[in-house]
């Protein structure tokens, strides 16, 4: 009986996340400081939790609209208008059970076996995996780390697009790099995609986590027409400490509405109504929380990047967005081995760079959305191993 | 700009549910009695809602185990042992964000473009759609309605399996028919699948809604070995009035565990922890609720089937399972037109049989999981149109 092999080879071959491999090595160790996952250490704020409780009591527990309840879709339109200055009509919005689900739905719409998606990397591993689930081929376009931080060579991105390319995937602000694509580059990518008939999938989950005083990082919405082949993916996870709620959304051309109505129906049959009502509270009352989160992360980033920069073997540049320090350690080329050693010797949990594709190997990712005293302790421990 | 057509043709071509088409015609009409969807009219019971509230307060709001939190997976093992008398180890259980998501994950594991899945029909439309999302071909095996109710000809099912067939899909108790596959037939199907190297996907969402005094309808788990190519799909929606919570599970060979760990990660990245804790309460404290639900449905079924049988043009047989009356009306061949007319003339919302594939056209589906006085009123109205 070889049931385990009689599934699609591409699904069998999906690589386990190297982050999970490392986390499994460290899980449950007493005193370990876990900074490996992409989530903060604060629970969802009370006003959101109370909105969920209220919605459960009020009976938002039945089947509901596949593309999202009207109050949430309308709140999202207002939010995008407010944050990015772009009017987005409600028929462009689809609520999903996470940013991940939105990306999977995007791939299901676009990628046939053998189709290629050009992916700017280093990037979180699930993006390339979602392409592979469809039998597609992710084509990495690695950025380089210069003295001004991570840089994407647009000519290299465009050269990676061939006859089988269906889409360009950009995650800005980027996980794990914190890189932010300039608006002018977004405009050039959109123009290139338009000319070549390609789709752009833009993962803007970290848009609010920027440290240069802006309200948000640029969005592809700001450089695209409503009918452009653009799918913007977003999530409540990072802005409003809702990682465990599984709530996201996508913005597409309105013409895809009926298709998404079906595709959501056949993928998950929608998102719980009471979770969507919690999302309404997040959008409508959540700006102070976002501002506090950015301030908290800014202090954490200063602490972490400062402490890392003081270690002679470490190469680190504070990134302008997201909530990660992504740093190289001189002489270290095997990031899984290094992350494992750091667990064993320092009781700090970090994500190995190998998880994030080409250009990630040799680096480590540290999520600094955490209490300062915990980070201080972690940095002291790291200094003893990496110093 | 023709963005709307530049997606995979198979996704563009996914048919909208005929149920939704009819519901859109009737939605919002004052006084309409909606019996079109597959959900009861009772909200989730308090002990489940309170468990969710508690879990939200207790901080189950972070990322969690991709295949489900240990307390829920263990509760499900105990449940399956108790209800079906089959020991199921925890490594065979994967929690999903609905039965639908479990079916989609199953299709993602098994179906390449051009692959066929033999589907016993009439069946709820999402099953065939999930095959199509993968580029696969659903091959319907229509049952026939005899004097003893719906009958599946196993020889016909086996004959429908050819060189491209990857799986047999069975939904028993069936939506919309209420048909229950006998255990001996399940054993024969499993043996055939084993011999031919096919998978069996068994949707057992209505297993507890049976009206012959049994605890549950037979499960394929009862006739299969742990290593058989069997995927059993289930959900909290129907048994515990949790349609809007999006919580389901699947039982697979243990060998698929690591694959599902990845596939859940890349599809939805898991199910909210607090919803899973609500599921634990449903399993551990929910038997009285299930018993009450079955009793309530039994009375509703008697009322509805009796009233329908009294109409000379209606052909109805009380089905042994699920919570639908699925009935033909003499001289009516266009079920969408008929359902539309019933909305206009009787203010009752029914699902058109055409939604459920071959053998469904000409019939109507009525969900009787509803208050008796409401059903009585609905039956009076229907009598005036169909009598």
Automatic annotation (TrEMBL), chains A, B:
CDD domains: AAT_like (cd00609). GO terms for molecular function: transaminase activity. Residues 38-382 form the Aminotransferase class I/classII large domain. It is an enzyme of class 2 (transferase). It catalyses: L-aspartate + 2-oxoglutarate = oxaloacetate + L-glutamate. Its cofactor is pyridoxal 5'-phosphate. Pfam families: Aminotran_1_2. It comes from the Bacteria. Its EC number is 2.6.1.-. Keywords: Aminotransferase, Pyridoxal phosphate, Transferase. NCBIfam families: PRK06108.1 (NF004770). Belongs to the class-I pyridoxal-phosphate-dependent aminotransferase family. This is Aminotransferase. It comes from Azospirillum rugosum.
């Amino acid at each position: 009986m070889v049931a385990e092999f009689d599934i699609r080879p591409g699904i069998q071959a999906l690589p386990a996340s190297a982050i999970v491999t490392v986390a499994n090595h460290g899980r449950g160790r007493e005193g370990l400081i876990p900074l490996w996952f992409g989530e903060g250490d604060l629970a969802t704020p009370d006003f959101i939790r109370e909105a969920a409780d209220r919605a459960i009591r009020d009976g938002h527990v039945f089947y509901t609209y596949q593309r999202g309840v009207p109050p949430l879709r309308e709140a999202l339109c207002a939010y995008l208008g407010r944050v990015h200055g772009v009017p987005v009509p409600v028929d462009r919005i689809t609520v999903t059970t996470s940013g991940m689900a939105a990306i999977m739905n995007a791939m299901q719409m676009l990628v046939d076996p053998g189709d290629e998606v050009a992916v700017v990397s280093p990037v979180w591993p699930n993006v390339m995996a979602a392409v592979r689930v469809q039998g597609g081929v992710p084509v990495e376009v690695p950025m380089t780390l210069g003295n001004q931080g991570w840089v994407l060579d647009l000519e290299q991105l465009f050269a990676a697009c061939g006859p089988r390319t269906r889409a360009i995937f950009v995650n800005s602000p980027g996980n794990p790099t914190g890189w932010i694509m300039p608006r002018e580059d977004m405009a050039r990518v959109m123009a290139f995609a338009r000319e070549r008939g390609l789709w752009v999938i833009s993962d803007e989950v970290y848009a609010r986590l920027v440290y240069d005083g802006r309200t948000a990082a640029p969005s592809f919405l700001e450089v695209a027409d409503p009918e452009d082949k653009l799918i913007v993916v977003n999530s409540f996870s990072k802005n409003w400490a809702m990682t465990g709620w599984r709530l996201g959304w996508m913005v597409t051309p309105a013409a895809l509405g009926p298709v998404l109505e079906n595709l959501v129906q056949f993928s998950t049959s929608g998102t719980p109504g009471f979770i969507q009502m919690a999302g309404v509270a997040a959008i409508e009352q959540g700006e102070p929380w976002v501002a506090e989160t950015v301030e908290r992360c800014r202090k954490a980033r200063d602490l972490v990047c400062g402490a890392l920069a003081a270690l002679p073997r470490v190469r680190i540049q504070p990134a302008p967005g997201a909530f990660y320090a992504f740093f190289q350690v001189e002489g270290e080329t095997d990031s899984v081995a290094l992350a494992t050693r750091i667990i064993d010797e320092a009781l700090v949990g970090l994500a190995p760079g190998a998880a994030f594709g080409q250009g990630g190997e040799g680096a480590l990712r540290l999520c600094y959305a955490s209490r300062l005293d915990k980070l201080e302790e972690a940095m002291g421990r790291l200094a003893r191993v990496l110093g």
